[in-house]
Amino acid sequence: MNTTSPPPRVAAPASRLTELDWLRVLAFGLLILYHSGMFYVSWDWHVKSPRLIPALEPWMLWLNPWRMSLLFLISGAATALMAGRADGGGGLIASRSRRLLLPLVFGMTVIVPPQAYLEVVEKLHYAGGYGDFLKLYFQGYHGFCRGDDCLKLPTWNHLWFLPYLWAYTVVVLLATRLDVVRRCLAHPGWRQVVAGGRLLWVPWLVFALLRQHLLERFPSTHDLVHDWYQHSVYFAVFLLGFALYGSRDDRHGAWETARRLRWIALVGFVAVQLLSQRLTSEWGIAHGDAFPEWLLMALRALNAGKQWLPIVAVLGFGRQWLADRDSPWLRWLTLAVFPFYLVHQTVTVIAGHLLAPLHWPLAMEAVALVAITALGCLLAALLAMRVDRLRPWMGLGPRT
Known about the structure:
It is a single chain. The radius of gyration is 22 Å and the shape is globular. Helix 1 (about 20-40) packs parallel to helix 15 (about 330-355), helix 3 (about 65-85) crosses helix 11 and helix 15 packs across helix 16 (about 360-385). The chain starts with 17 loop residues before the first helix and ends in a 14-residue tail after the last helix. Strand 1 (about 145) and strand 2 form a beta hairpin. The longest helix has 30 residues, at about 295-320. The protein has a domain at about 15-65 and about 335-400. Helices cover about 70% and strands about 0% of the residues. A two-stranded antiparallel sheet has the order 1-2. It has about 400 residues and is mainly α.
């Protein structure tokens, strides 16, 4: 007898792309694992294990250039599908604002503060209690500093994705009210953009130019206002998702082209990644950290390929393996993944802070960290689904 309980019933909306749903779930799952890994690498993060795992860093470097861009592209495609079903742009803007901004407010008020508290406890040896810290947090206290690096409070930490996504969504939905924009999105010339191998090299070229001209001028801030390089990349991939991957009938052929080019994109990504690592390593061994301009330009071009080629590969394999693969589990995960995203980093930070003093074997500790994060995400999603008043604050719509 089968004792496995089915997931709660979730209605299947019309005009869905199951490959898009699967990729969204998998991309956020990858993000959760990535942030668990941040506890064990040498890069700056909110809390740190006293026992680092340097071997994780090369693997995480394979994900760094494209993991967030993939999420923005998926979000752009999902927004186009929603716009195709909506009666009017104004209603969709209001709906998306509720689904993105209410969780942002709730996150900055309830979910994120424990991360900031444990950060100042570990990095600055703050001795006050959590209640004392919250008073400073909501007062906008800026005195938690290491040299010139001060923690800005309140903060949205990992939830920076929400205001960025909201801004891009509003801009695009307002623009699509114009006839000229709608005609542009429907223009058959988009097929020429993705025809042949252009889907591989045209966006790569665009990202290379953005890296060359904006990256050093506008370092990443995640503050929404001054983050112009990141905006140029994330808004570009959001637009690509909206224009090319947000139609059920694949009107511009972008899904099919990605499917056809998936192996080329994957092999190209591996080759570009290995070449970039080899150039960086060999020059560093021979000449130190001072890179000449010609090498920096070459590395920027290669890094642009690392941004785009894996996205094409992921889209292509998603189309090949996940199209029309609907299930109750997928529909449930599609609903649960937003609460997962909201709480996962806070659970990881708290769990890491509490696990480190126990001095468990490192492998056991790492497995426990991932397991606790997964369990915390599951409990948060179930709670959000069952408590009606909590649903909008956790990014869920009304019960259907």
